[in-house]
Protein 1
Amino acid sequence: MIRLRTMRRWFTSVTVIAFGLAVLFSWSMIVSSKNSDDIKRLESHASPSNGKPYSMVKPTVTDLKEAADRIKELESRLQDLELRIPKRFPEVKFLTYKDRKRILITGGAGFVGSHLVDRLMMEGHEVIVVDNYFTGRKRNVEHWVGHENFELIHHDIVNPIFIEVDQIYHLASPASPPHYMYNPVKTIKTNTVGTINMLGLAKRVGARVLIASTSEVYGDPEVHPQPETYWGHVNPIGPRACYDEAKRVSETLAYSYNKQEKVEVRVARIFNTYGPRMHMNDGRVVSNFILQALTGDSITIYGSGEQTRSFQYVTDLVDGLIKLMNSNYSLPVNLGNPDEHTIKEFATIIHEMVGKKSTITHKDAMEDDPQRRKPDITRATTILGWTPVVPLEAGIKKTIQYFQGELQRSKHSERNLHEPSFYGFTSKADYEDL
Ligand SMILES: NC(=O)c1ccc[n+]([C@@H]2O[C@H](COP(=O)([O-])OP(=O)(O)OC[C@H]3O[C@@H](n4cnc5c(N)ncnc54)[C@H](O)[C@@H]3O)[C@@H](O)[C@H]2O)c1
């Protein structure tokens, strides 16, 4: 009985295995015939010689051209697909609805503006950039495009704009002599009509405005260093007047809106600033010298080189701007680095740091070129608790690296990024490796 049962079990198992093998065999036959059909179909379709396998065909010039065209088409499709992959953004701080501000930065695609964008984005605010790209570039802020807290608007502030914001950093204006002298009337319009538009917007929505003024309001100063109480020494019809006088009007407008319309205003008198993303061709001392040294051209000093300048690194300025905006102080505040050097000294420092064999040459002095420029930052230090912290050599090193990268750049896609930690440094150790 037991034997009979064992035999029946054995018979059932053999039948099941045989059936399984039969199924597997027929499936593999179907698949392999399908594959060979596919291969044949592909060959006859793709082969230029009516179905002959490729091994038997010698490609003609036309075939190669067709293949190259096809590769190009596929590459562009691949690029499209890559663009659809969600971008990775630096980890920004999370602010609750109560603490998060909606902040407009005019001129936010420019040198200073783009660093301010980075800092405010990292702090977790919503940032709206308005720029007409006269001297600014999308590339300076493209690493934020697509982020839920960021918006970029192509707009000329000479025309009004209607948006809802809590704070306005009004930075839009060409800043370097060749740029603001290129179209002097437009420079005046941007700093007068444009400022009226921003103050008007602030009045409508109850926002606070910070005006980016300049040390140029002091003209060619007769007082050293320049405190905010100094009224300046400006030539109203000189080549720099379109900028200097327009900025002076911009300040006057701010205080008139404050007095008449109760708009909350802050005025930053910014002194020479340098750092990554400054224009290569803006004709300013630092960019000129670095570029000339890197390309092996002679470093040009206009005049004797005994005239002095003091330069602040851009992250120091950004720090001061944010502190001023969030302070209770409404009179003008100088933001600059009082560490004063002669132009000759700058030329030597850059010459040595770049380490190329360029020479230093002298040309005639420029008209209305200020002989001394050094901020008195007592007000910023006592009222805002602000003082520049980045040493000259560390900042210059970072700027040289940026210019080197720009000179070597040969593709649009090489992003102009900075590591997020770059914006968050608080101690000396943090900026030492700048
Ligand atoms: N960088 C300095 O050393 C320095 C010194 C003193 C004052 N400032 C002031 O700081 C601000 C920023 O300077 P920067 O060095 O970043 O200059 P920048 O030229 O790099 O940036 C200015 C930005 O404003 C934009 N812009 C100009 N006109 C505009 C308009 N009509 N509408 C919209 N956008 C416009 C430009 O496209 C650019 O993006 C300026 O107001 C400048 O006067 C700068």
Note: Residues 2-46 form the longest helix (45 residues).
Protein 2
Amino acid sequence: MIKFKRTLGHLNVKEYLKRLLNSETLPSSILFAGPEGVGKATCAFEFVKIYFCEGDEKPCEKCTYCLRMNHFNFPGFRLVLPADIEKKIVEEINSGSISPENLRGESFSRNSSIKIEQIRNLKEEIIYPPHERDRIFYLFLDADLMGRETQNAFLKTLEEPPPYITFILISSHPELVLPTIRSRTHKVIFSSLSFEDFSKYSFPKGYNIEYLYNLSAGSIGKAKSMISWNIEELKKKILQILVRGKNPYNILRGEITRDQLVLMCGIIQFMLKDLLYIKSGVQEGIVFQEMLPFYARYKDKLSRQEIEKRFYQILELEDAIKRRVNLSLIVLSLPKFAFV
Ligand SMILES: [Zn+2]
């Protein structure tokens, strides 16, 4: 019997994967696509563990394969990580700070990439059939962190892989994966988590789960980043730019990452939404309750239409960030969302 115990929600995905696991053979490549931080990597890891598990209820967490998988110590499972952080992550694995529920660990960053040399090495590696069991899984974190040239190199491997290989490509930006690669993969599509599933995750104590859910759009990964980035600090920076008219470049000092900017956009969206609620005299549904005095002071500075316009513009900006438009341009465009 198969039970995905560590993957929250995603019932359809789990059913589909169970069918795959019960079938004669596995596809040579599977794309796990869907929003960031909803458990794609956790689910992929569990999928591989179930494949190798020899217990009755899979994963049993007791057999030698489950234990070795949990210690990242089974050669049938290999991680493909961006080159510049690979070493750090391997150190984290060795020190035990990376768990199967948090495969990316502390050092993971979307600012790094999987390099073409790694794909060349992988090509040489996969010539050798497995010593143990019948399959080797390669888990790409994340597939869209390969540049175009690297993806083209990988495509050749994908076209004629040895029969004992399965590539699992994780991506929250599948549009950045070449169509020629996408068309050769089995697709497993993840959606956002429901509040019920999201709240089952054990977040550190003291956080309002509903607030985290709204702000992260149901992404556990994003919510965890928010906790580590200090939302309050980001809010202060936003207010300095949008209310006090400070130069965004000086405030953000070029240190901000793409993911943090996406989060900033999310926070601005909630502030704008809150302002609309306040204008309509509605108190329920306000995300940043602690900002009520601020809202009271600024609610009449902008008309309803002006707030709505900013709301749609910020959605466009968020999209531009994801499309990898130059970050300086994005930062410099922030003042147009001013609340005053
Ligand atoms: Zn087992």
Note: Residues 258-279 form the longest helix (22 residues).
